[in-house]
Specification:
Length: 228
């Protein structure tokens, strides 16, 4: 059984008409696993990087500034490496951003699922907190989604409601007619405040199964009404 932010009652609600999806951790392999592998390599503690952003106020501030587009990768990288060194950890030549990104790979099943949804006429938006100036390099976002709402471009980050509002407005759909796919519960909680149902992603095969149940070809026909 998949998990929604509202539980079983929402699972039996009418099928959504449009899809909002996270990028890192949904259309790629797990960001959480990448954080843990990177942290283990540089510090011997798989929880180091997560703890840094949770417990170090300056590291948390730098992340917000970068993800909201107010700080370029170069400045963010220098600041984060300084905070890591302050805690006795040196990421070496790979740095933080490249060290993390190098551990992410495309999730082919989820990428195929997005292409399939669009082929069925389902409006799709990528709603992503961007980390790194070129975090989407190598991905054809125009093939995967009708619109892309990246935090670095719109100046706010998930779980701010404005992120989801922008996506729904650009797709031309009502929030209550959409589902948000994300690997972090707090991002689904933010979407839920607008009436957007949430699908917590942890396994690509299960997520694809749920999407196929909602968006069969017969159910999806004629759905596309995208305002660009």
């Amino acid at each position: 059984m998949f998990r929604t932010v509202e539980g079983d009652a929402m699972a039996h609600a009418p099928a959504p008409r449009a899809v909002l999806t996270d990028f890192g951790g949904v259309l790629t392999t797990s960001v959480i696993d990448a954080f843990r592998a990177f942290s283990q390599e540089i510090s011997g503690d798989p929880g180091f990087a997560t703890g840094l952003f949770r417990d170090d106020d300056e590291a948390a501030r730098l992340l917000v500034e970068h993800e909201c587009g107010r700080m370029a990768e170069r400045e963010f990288e220098a600041g984060i490496v300084a905070r890591m060194r302050h805690h006795g950890v040196d990421p070496g030549a790979q740095g933080f951003v490249r060290g993390l990104q190098s551990r992410l790979r495309p999730d082919t099943a989820m990428l195929d699922a997005m292409r399939g949804l669009r082929a069925r006429g389902v409006p799709v938006a990528i709603v992503s907190n961007s980390l790194g100036d070129d975090c989407y390099r190598g991905y054809d976002l125009a093939e995967l989604a009708d619109v892309v709402v990246a935090s670095g471009e719109v100046g706010v980050r998930k779980p701010a409601r404005r992120m989801y509002t922008i996506a729904c407005e650009r797709l031309g759909v009502a929030p209550e007619d959409t589902v948000m796919i994300d690997d972090l519960q707090q991002n689904l909680d933010g979407a839920a405040r607008l009436g957007i149902r949430g699908l917590l992603h942890s396994d690509g095969a299960e997520t694809v199964r749920v999407l196929d149940g909602w968006f069969s070809p017969a159910q999806s026909r004629g759905l596309r009404q995208v305002t660009l």
